[in-house]
Amino acid sequence: MPGDWKDANPRKRSCAWAILRNRAPEKCSRAAGRKRLPGYWVSLWKDRSSKGHEMERSIVVVAEHFQGEITPITYELAAFARQLQQLLAAPVKILILGDPVREVAQDLAEKTGREVVGIQAPGLRSYTCEAYKKLLGDFLPKISPSYVCVPHTSTGWDYAPALAVRLGAACITAVEGVVRLNEGIAFTRSFFNGKITAVMTSKVQTTVLTLQPGKIRPLEPGSARPGPITIHSVESPSQLSRFIERKQRREQSSSLTEAEVIVSAGKGLRKKENVSLVSRLADLFSRSAVGGSRSACDLGWIEHRQQVGTTGVTVTPKLYVACGISGAFQHLVGMSGSGFIVAINTDPNAPIFNVADVCIVDDLTAFIPAFIEAYERRLMAS
Ligand SMILES: Cc1cc2nc3c(=O)[nH]c(=O)nc-3n(C[C@H](O)[C@H](O)[C@H](O)COP(=O)(O)OP(=O)(O)OC[C@H]3O[C@@H](n4cnc5c(N)ncnc54)[C@H](O)[C@@H]3O)c2cc1C
């Protein structure tokens, strides 16, 4: 309920939450989108029970890696852990599981400057939920972490809740940021396509957090002295499931990843014929490409390989133009690193406007042809 708070699970009393409706952007810019929130939260925050216990204990990051390479979200987790450390004055450890693990652990210690603990077990070459739950569940109680930071990716969201149950911990998923209130530490996350922001805290000693990719600027690799490394060799956990194969998608999305300008279509196009408007707008720029939201791709208006977002491609063009896209966080994750963002939407409260540099509140079927016509007229005159 907006502006209200209560225990998420009154029986277990492990998490408290407050959900606050975002006010409409007073000024449309990325900065305004971020700044307007904290005062609003503070005035409504009521939970006092988490104060204190987080001061004595550690913060753990569980690294993600694939085929010997550390994935980018791990550096975002390291940066997030640093933010937590600044608030809690608690030591940070990075855990990495694998077989073999020494080389990736070494790489991580060099790139982050953090203490790295490697857990090596036969068969850990590939991820399984059971193995991560068992090995982390055995190891973590020995160091009693306050926070276990896990990526909100297809692996992280798979094992995080199971690990939390195993540890008797709270679990807060899809975290986007951390705030320090008078009453303690709290975490923010979005609901309903970013229209509502929840501020959540934990009432128990250990909390598993999954961090939403693209929300925290990653730690610059290699900026510190290498941290110490410890490797624990353990027995392979017995498992009911077994990894067979990981299949790579065949399609290439090079046109999107190489483009300097991307014009993306959303469900707000209303019909397939309007895709030509988006293509004509993209054609005004050299090195441009057309992208789309998942809805536009699912409707068959845009090819799936051109989908931008968590289950599509992550892009960082110089200019991103979002046409009739609401700005669900799954879409924002894929494009919010763009240099300059223009959004066209009929709804002045569309979440896409929270990340846009220029917000055009208009019907795209009226705005885009008018813009192209004005541009071509100016070109002829010059
Ligand atoms: C596991 C999972 C993964 C997902 N992965 C992705 C992903 O990778 N990428 C992705 O994009 N989504 C993804 N989604 C879907 C996502 O949650 C949203 O549903 C989707 O992004 C919405 O697409 P949209 O903005 O085009 O449509 P809508 O949310 O329907 O928004 C349409 C917008 O168009 C505006 N509009 C309507 N008419 C006009 C007009 N005439 N002119 C201008 N504006 C107009 C409306 O105001 C509205 O804001 C995922 C969802 C899940 C559950």
Structure in a nutshell:
By secondary structure, this protein is of the alpha/beta class. It has eleven helices and 19 strands.
Keyphrases for this structure?
about 375 residues; alpha/beta; Rossmann fold; 7-stranded parallel sheet; 5-stranded antiparallel sheet; 11 helices; 19 strands; disordered N terminus; binds flavin-adenine dinucleotide
How much of the sequence lies in strands comes to 25-35%
- Counting DSSP H or I runs of 4 or more residues, the number of helices is 11
Highest CATH level, the class of the largest domain:
Alpha Beta
Q: Identify the CATH architecture of the largest domain.
A: 3-Layer(aba) Sandwich
For the CA atoms, what is the radius of gyration?
A: 23 Å
Poorly predicted residue ranges: 1-55
**Bound heterogens, unique:** flavin-adenine dinucleotide
Count the beta strands: 19
Can you tell me the number of structural domains? Answer: 2
Query: Approximately how much helix is present in the residues?
Result: 25-40%
Major sheet description: 7 strands, parallel
What is the helix/strand order? Answer: EEHHEEEHEHEHEHEEEEEEHEHEHEHEEH
The name of the CATH superfamily of the largest domain reads: HUPs
Oligomer: single chain
Mass-distribution shape: elongated
With strands numbered from the N-terminus, the spatial order across the biggest sheet is: 9-13-8-3-6-7-14
Integer average pLDDT: 84
Q: Distance between termini?
A: 57 Å
CATH topology of the largest domain: Rossmann fold
Structural class: alpha/beta
